[in-house]
Amino acid sequence: MASEFVRSLEGVLRNLERNEPATAAAAAKHVLEAETSHRRKWFTRFAAERVMPLLAQAAEAIEKNGGAASCRLNDKGESLAAELVIVPRNLPSGAIPPRLSISAVAGERALAVDYTGTFPAVGASGGFGAEVDYDTIFPSQVEDKILDFVTLATGA
User: Fold this and answer.
1) Cα separation, 76 vs 57, whole angstroms
2) 3-state secondary structure (DSSP) of residue 54
3) Domain hosting residue 113, numbered range
4) Regarding predicted confidence, which is higher, 69 or 129?
5) What is the count of structural domains for the chain?
6) Does residue 20 carry a pLDDT above 80?
7) Which of 10, 83, 94, 109 has its CB surrounded by the most CB atoms within 10 Å?
8) For residue 19, what are the CA distances in angstroms to 7, 25, 52?
9) How far is residue 149's CA from residue 127's CA, in Å, rounded to a whole number?
């Protein structure tokens, strides 16, 4: 004999079968896809006009001071990220160099900033150590985050 809960559950599911599939869930999915598309278009333009020139200036300045650095706009299909990689002097063999990645995210703070790699003066006794940091920022904070990253990646 079925319990009251099972009968109620079956009643709910019977109602589900009668609803058309293109209801609130489909509408929400459409809104999310539109938001994602809009954010990607915005970030593509913002990265080209603002972020990549700053990363290129940082890479050039590091190169002028005897370091090694590169930047690129990395398009991984679903995600797009502006990246700066700095290879610090005396980076241990096999160590992953510091990488800054800036990408668009949903929410009030429109950008995600990731630091990954092996950084000088982060490890024990002031040596190299691994670091992973993630933050969300406003577009107006991009310059400060790049400067913070360059400081950390170069040990300056």
Assistant:
1) 24
2) helix
3) 4-154
4) 69
5) 1
6) no
7) 83
8) 19, 12, 48
9) 17
